[in-house]
UniProtKB/TrEMBL annotation:
GO molecular function: glucosamine 6-phosphate N-acetyltransferase activity
Species in which this protein is naturally found: Blastococcus haudaquaticus
PANTHER family: GLUCOSAMINE 6-PHOSPHATE N-ACETYLTRANSFERASE
Protein name: Predicted N-acyltransferase, GNAT family
Superkingdom of origin organism: Bacteria
Pfam families: Acetyltransf_10
Domain N-acetyltransferase: 4-144
Alphabetical keyword list: Acyltransferase, Transferase
PROSITE patterns documented for this protein: GNAT
Gene3D superfamilies noted in UniProt: 3.40.630.30
SUPFAM superfamilies on file: Acyl-CoA N-acyltransferases (Nat)
Length: 144
């Protein structure tokens, strides 16, 4: 278990969130910068976790669908901070935020390399793998 804490990001955290997502998705994974940020960022609930020095080292976002379900995406932990529970803490915080808004089920498009990360958090794969932003994904769901 980890004592890493996550929280909801405020406007002042946004530059750090963007910088982290750019490092992970654009620089590390080669996602085109023009699709990394999108209109959904304006309405999403963004989660963050910080390291001991206070830097944002993990993030993710929650998109409410309005039908009792929600989507979690853009989960990213700084490469130097992986494996220490920051990603799991952000995921759990986003699930708490979802449940507080009446969400009963969360769906996400998992990169296949992160499938085990989500399985450990209680998600199950549905359907076949597909390619999104040039990366192999699988849809996963969890009831809250
Ligand atoms: C996937 C990602 C967000 C995980 O973040 P993290 O902070 O390293 O994850 P955690 O340390 O909280 O890991 C939680 C658990 O999942 C496991 N886990 C994490 N990433 C894993 C992976 N890629 N494969 C298998 N297990 C993994 C950890 O070992 C840990 O297990 P434990 O509960 O037994 O300790 C991070 O690896 C990342 O940013 N990857 C690059 C971007 C990416 O692929 N994002 C996902 C988009 S769908």
């Amino acid at each position: 278990m980890s004592d890493v804490r996550a929280s909801v990001a405020g406007p002042a955290d946004w530059p750090e969130v963007v910088a982290l997502r750019t490092r992970v998705f654009v620089d590390e994974q080669g996602v085109p910068p023009e699709i990394e940020q999108d209109d959904a960022d304006a309405t999403a609930v963004h989660g963050i976790a910080r390291d001991a020095a206070g830097a944002v080292v993990a993030t993710g976002r929650l998109l409410l669908r309005g039908d009792g379900t929600a989507t979690i995406g853009r989960m990213a932990t700084d490469a130097a901070a992986r494996g220490r529970g920051h990603g799991a803490a952000v995921l759990a915080e986003l699930e708490r935020q979802a449940a507080a808004r009446g969400v009963v089920a969360v769906e996400l498009h998992a990169q296949v390399t992160a499938r085990r990360f989500y399985e450990r958090a209680g998600y199950a794969a549905v359907g076949d793998e597909y390619v999104e932003a040039g990366i192999r994904h699988v849809t996963m769901r969890r009831r809250l």
